[in-house]
Amino acid sequence: MSNDPRFLIPFEQGLVEPAESMLVIRPADAMGLSGFENVTIEQGFYPTAKALEGAGFAVSSHAEGRFGMALVNLTRAKAENLANIARASAMTDGVVLVNGAKTEGIESLLKAVKKITSVTVLSKAHGKVFWFDAAPMPAEWLAAGEMAANKDGFITAPGMFSSGKVDGGSALLAPHLEGLKGRVADLGAGWGWLAAQALGPDVLEMVLFEAEHKAVEAAKLNLTDERVRFEWADVLALPKQLPFDVVISNPPFHQSRTAEPGIGVGFIHAAAKLLKPKGRLLMVANRQLPYERTLEGAFRKVEMLRQTNGFKLFEASSPKR
Ligand SMILES: C[S@@+](CC[C@H](N)C(=O)[O-])C[C@H]1O[C@@H](n2cnc3c(N)ncnc32)[C@H](O)[C@@H]1O
Q1: pTM, whole model, 2 decimals?
Q2: Residue 163 CA to its chain's centroid (Å)
């Protein structure tokens, strides 16, 4: 069996013909895309978007236009996937392919699309690729992907971290953010709830760094104070900048389905680099993730502020140079 990406199989088997242009939503990488003409990629996750641009593709955080065909790669949020399928279908004149793993919910999306139009399916590598001729999809699929106020009154959209409600870890950290002074950075700021809690009267400037473009757009709607700036960026690759007095963070603990403590470790090193010599990092982490040694390696003083069943809160000050 070929090791090519799953979405290539229908082309290799002559079941689908390439079109003169192609929209590709949310690819994780460029694998298999170089053989197609006029590829437009929609990818809002900064590190992936920049890697795809580096590979020579046109990348947008929100694609528009008309395309000969479309390929929708799944994320882990069903509502986001339904909205992407509906958008892709509305922008396409030919075939729409949907590619995803079982763990991303490909089966239930296949079932949903089958109720609307006729679909062809192939299975490979714990997942499926299915395709159909572009057809109108339910308006509610599109609507469910839009920004809207969540139950805490903040604007979010499906696919963002904890889009439905305030994250439990962030809620634990919030009481420790009172009275912050000077320049404050939030690393992995999401749709901005934690930063909003930290924005007291003595904060001179606050910068929200976040990799997911749509989350940055939501944060802009949630924090309209003129002291706040927004950076669509990869925290693991930030350029040098004016140092901060305080960094706050609820760092990501995975990019895939399994825990990847390496990302949090990278966030801790990034915080140490961004801070003034006497600056402080206030962070919350999942309890089982081993960040103590990294914090002690990067800061002169490390204190555990609180531990619960699920989380640990740390204050680390005076980064080592
Ligand atoms: C655990 S969430 C915390 C979000 C928000 N601060 C909150 O408390 O709800 C971590 C955030 O980091 C973002 N993220 C993941 N990798 C990133 C990276 N390399 N650079 C910047 N942000 C990243 C994710 O998109 C997510 O919004």
Answers
A1: 0.95
A2: 11
